[in-house]
Amino acid sequence: MSEYIIETNGLTRRFGKHVSVDHIDLRVPEGKIYGFLGANGAGKTTTIRMLLSLIRADEGSVQIMGKSLQHEREKILRNVGSLVEGPSYYGHLSAYKNLKIICKLMDLPEKDIDQVLDIVRLAPYAKKTVKDYSLGMKQRLGIAQALIRRPKLLILDEPINGLDPAGIQEIRNLMLSLCHEQGITIFLSSHILSEIQSVAEEIGIIQNGKLIFQNSIKELENKRRTKLLIETENQQEAFRALSSAGADVVLQDGKLLISLTEKMDQSRIFNILQPFSIQHMQELTASFEDIFLTLTGRDGSL
Ligand code: ATP
Question: Which residues form the pocket of ligand 1, taking CB atoms under 6 Å from any ligand atom?
Fold first, then answer.
């Protein structure tokens, strides 16, 4: 069986001539929060709708929990909770009654309602009509509606959109506790890098329908290449020596800016620069945003 809770192969969807999702191979490990990052229009919602079988794929396959979505749709979706494009609810009813309707419709035990309301921290407001809830509370009710079926996998499409900082913090804490305390895998989409960075262990970056990066957040951080900013007695000569030795070097405001690599490490650079005597040296590390910019050509907020 696959070690991934979601695995797609060549998943593709076109709208007319436009390829919205272009042969993506998702690998979502079980028991973690996977952040699916992309700008508006990059293809996140289209991908999620295919994962939930809300629209069909033009090409490729989806396996969830080791089963083919095409062949075992109902069995799979029974174990998947989702919140896509905002929650839907009866505003004139309480959160409790909204959940009760879902239990009736889906033949689920009503005894779980209190616990689920407690998890999303709506228990004190369970009897209040939902139309009087804040946006963040409505969003948490949406998550409660997904949780009531006790899913192994929770798919959340931009769950913090439109929330105030307190609401964002609530959802963030909720995602962390659902994953770490309840063992639920969370597939979370967002267009904000820092949002994904604050909760996710794994990340997939989608741009123009293509998955341009997929790995652990740690691995993305490893891409931060350290650079050295050096001044010597003879910058022009030092620059030539470094260039001809194959270093990635530029002259910036009269200083040598050198990228460290495995081959061109600090001691090798010192060796090359020995004849020019180093006067000043500074180490620079790229920020997470810098790496992102290198990958996507855009800054942290897409
Ligand atoms: P957003 O955060 O804005 O929802 P997204 O990453 O979720 O962005 P999608 O909604 O998946 O992006 O859209 C991807 C592309 O597919 C866009 O260019 C969009 O215009 C197009 N698209 C999505 N749904 C349809 C549709 N039903 N008909 C035509 N084009 C569509």
Answer: 15, 18, 20, 38, 40-46, 191
